[in-house]
Amino acid sequence: MQINWYPGHMAKTRRMIKENLKLVDVVLEIVDARAPKSTHIPDIFELIGSKKLILIMNKADLAEEKITDLWGIYFAEKGLVSVSVNSRNKVGFKDLDEMIHDFSKEVKRPLRGMVVGVPNVGKSSFINQIVGKKAAKTGNKPGITRGKMWLKATDKLELLDTPGILWPKIEQESVGLKLAFLGCIKEELLDVERISLKLIEFLVKKHPERLAARYKIETPQSPVAILEQIAKSRGFIISGGRPDTLRAAKTLLKEFQDGKLGRISLEKPAGDEDLIIENERMQKGDII
Ligand SMILES: Nc1nc2c(ncn2[C@@H]2O[C@H](COP(=O)(O)OP(=O)(O)OP(=O)(O)O)[C@@H](O)[C@H]2O)c(=O)[nH]1
Ligand SMILES: [Mg+2]
C-alpha cells in the first residue's frame, strides 16, 4: 500500500522554521523523555544553522528518572544544553527559567524562542505552561498544531509554536517503532496491530509484571496470544466470539502513551539494547 508518508505540510513547516529563524534568539527543541534520541530531529542543526539550541526532555513524568538523568549527562557531553520537564504539571521549569534569563540578558527586547519538535511530544503544552494559560491548542494525537503561532509568555519572552515535523525517510526500524509507540505518527499511517505486537515484545522483555497486572495476562505467551488476551480481558469481542485485536492494539498503545503501565523509558544513552528489534533497513515508501 502506498502511503502519503511525508505530507506537504511537513515540508512547508520546515520552510517556515527556516524563514522564521532570523526572528528568534533561541530554538527550543522538545523531545519525549522516554526516547530523547529517537524523537530528536536528526538534521536539527542543518535546519537551524548556528542558532542556539536548548533541548527540552518533556513528559519526564512518564520516563524513568535515572535514565533521564543519564540522557542529561549524555547531551552535556555532546555540548548540548538540556533540561527535563513535565508540561502537564509544571515540573522542572525553574532550571529553564534561569537559562532563559541568562539568554535574555544578551538582548534588549523580549527574548524570542521558537519551539520545534516531532508531532505530539508536547510542544504546545510546554508553551502553555510557560505562558500560564491554555493559549496553544493541545491534544493526544499528532498534528494538532496546524500553523505557526506567536505567544507572549512574559514581558521578557515570546514563543513561536510550530507544527510537528518528521523526516522523509526513517532509516532505522527501531526509531520508527519508538515514534509509533509514543504517538508521534498518525495512527492511520500505521499497521496498529503490528506495532502493538512489537510493543508487547518489548514489554514482555522489560516489564512483564506490569503487562500481567494490568491486563491479567499469564506469561509466558506469544505476543499474538497476549494481544488476544488483552481483548478478552477488556471484553472486546467481535462477531463469532473472536477477540477484537485491533481495538486491543489501539487500547494498549493509548494506555502505554498515557503512562498507564507506569514510567517506562524506551532507550538508554548506551545504545538500543532495550528494544528487541531486528534492524532491517526500511523499504522506500514503507512505513513501519
Ligand atoms: N504526562 C504528560 N503528558 C503530556 C506532557 N506534555 C504534553 N502531554 C500530553 O501530550 C499530548 C500532546 O501534547 P501537545 O502539546 O498537543 O503536543 P504537540 O507537540 O504540540 O503536538 P502537535 O501540535 O500535534 O505536533 C497531550 O495529550 C498532552 O496533554 C507531559 O509533560 N506529561
Ligand atoms: Mg502542538
TrEMBL record:
| Residues reported to bind GTP | 58-61, 86-87, 120-125, 164
Xref: PROSITE patterns: G_CP
Tell me where in or outside the cell this protein is found: Cytoplasm
Any one Gene Ontology molecular-function term assigned to this protein's record: GTP binding
**Among the record's GO biological process terms, what is one?**
translation
Does the record's keyword annotation contain Cytoplasm? yes
Q: Does the keyword 4Fe-4S apply?
A: no
Query: Which residues are in the CP-type G domain?
Result: 13-168
Report the function annotation for this chain.
Answer: Required for a late step of 50S ribosomal subunit assembly. Has GTPase activity.
- Similarity field: Belongs to the TRAFAC class YlqF/YawG GTPase family. MTG1 subfamily.
Protein name per UniProt: Ribosome biogenesis GTPase A
Lineage here is: Bacteria, Bacillati, Bacillota, Clostridia, Thermosediminibacterales
